[in-house]
Write a structure and sequence with these properties.
Layout (H helix, E strand, L loop, with lengths): L2 H14 L2 H4 L7 E2 L10 E11 L8 E13 L4 H15 L9 E15 L5 E14 L3
Parallel strand pairs: 1-2
Antiparallel strand pairs: 2-3, 3-5, 4-5
Amino acid sequence: MSADLAVQTAIRARLVATSAVTALVPATSILDRNASPAPRPGIVLGESQVVDEGDSIDRRRERVFHTVHVWKTEPSREGVKLILAAIRDAIRAERLDLGPDYHCADWRVSSTRAMSDPDGQTSHGVLVVECLAVEVEG
């Protein structure tokens, strides 16, 4: 398994297991898929980028940047901001479990932003989870 897939799997597992998140977005609407339209309210695991940390000769340390998209039909961005805050709290609560192949050496929510969609009815939030994943030697 790749580091970005391990992080993606860990993020979704954390979100569906966190009652503060599922109180705002049903677990069935926390998705890893690329289709439109996204459910409203909904959380869609999005893009990822993997960067070699470049600080070790064995090249087992990768920084994963993973985006999480939030969608909600509402006249303001208040609901999206509440969902983003619940996601942030869920991610910060404890170290991500990356399974047997990777260890989560460091993690954080590095940015959040909330915006209005051009359709005038939808709010969209984007949150970036940054994770330093270290490959476990096997």
